[in-house]
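Holo prediction — flavin-adenine dinucleotide.
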Amino acid sequence: MSKARFDAVIAGGGIVGAACAAALTLRGMKVALVERDVMGSGATAAGMGHIVVMDDSPAQFALTRYSQQLWQELAGALSFRAEYEACGTLWIAADEEEMAEAGRKQSYYRDRGVPAQLLSAADLAAAEPNLRAGLAGALLVPEDAVVYPPAAALHLAKIAQARGTSLYVGRSVKQMAAGEALLDNGDLLCAPILINAIGASAPELTPGVPVRKRKGHLVITDRQPGFVRHQLVELGYLKSAHSVTADSVAFNAQPRKTGQALIGSSRQFGSESTGVDPAMVSAMLARAAEYMPALKVLPAIRIWTGFRAATPDKLPLIGPWPADSTLWMATGHEGLGITTSLATAALLSAQIAETDAPIPVEPYLPARFSSSTALLGPNSFAARKPSAKETS
Ligand SMILES: Cc1cc2nc3c(=O)[nH]c(=O)nc-3n(C[C@H](O)[C@H](O)[C@H](O)COP(=O)(O)OP(=O)(O)OC[C@H]3O[C@@H](n4cnc5c(N)ncnc54)[C@H](O)[C@@H]3O)c2cc1C
């Protein structure tokens, strides 16, 4: 057993932990990053990699928009393996009611400086010829992008390592509190700052963290370049209710630089199994085929699952953990952790360094939940109304 001292110890080498390590080392801190598997192997490897501005709440908008801008700044430095591409999102309206929602969304974005353009039915058909006929139109958000998340996480971990971060890969944090992180081989890492960035497993290290696993499935097809051209997301959540309590599916398709189409998405609480659920996959693909019938002819070559880290109010936990003055949270990103990883790191490092944060941090502070009532009080998962502007 050995003992080492750092300025900060981060548990979890997903995209969030890697981004935090890169940001903290930029401030001159001596950082240890501990990953039990390989870098970027958790939800980061399972995620869709849609970098998307969302407007479910002002706080969600602020975090996603700011982070998207950080991705734009980083994009030029990413290697081709990260497959960053600003393909834009098409929010698809199936009927006039959904077209009205597209119009509302456009106004919201336009008022806040996010380019967004309404497409007629004919414009949509020209932009995405494999969609079914008869759709009402769409909202194009051209600055949204896609990235290959595990490669992006590795890029951030390498930046952190080049700035002096010590990587502990294949090591698990067994306990983390009061300035000490105990590893599975008995090594002790001591630091005044401990960061829980283990995603959906966060409560294993910090009991009481209001995070639940929310399972998702994705399917990837064989290569057919140009089959899908933008990230496609249905606005039909208005009726299909990609709800917070029940199992749900929604149409979501992404063009990969490889020419493959990545198809999602499903959401399930209460399933701890990593296995593929054939009923969920069938429902998800049936939904996709409603929008894009031609998908049926593309061979699916792989199906996988992953766990999103869901919080009761759909906002991540970024900041100090009230019960332990050495402990900080960087978790709870649900279906937006690839998008918001860079902003999370910026907000967390600003708080730790006690400097001005680029956007207000208050909506994301863990202190908004009391640990004893987080899962039972008015903000509980059960009490949350379905508000399903959830994409992937
Ligand atoms: C199906 C699906 C689709 C998604 N699509 C998108 C999308 O399009 N856009 C988007 O922005 N987000 C998306 N997400 C969400 C996104 O993938 C996650 O929010 C993000 O990857 C979370 O990153 P993380 O670093 O917090 O967690 P993780 O990537 O899970 O990283 C946590 C790491 O901690 C490690 N770990 C766990 N326990 C320990 C321990 N005790 N000690 C050491 N290490 C430990 C794990 O091995 C893991 O590597 C999607 C998620 C899913 C499941």
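READOUT: The chain has two domains: 1-86+143-211+311-392, 89-142+212-309.
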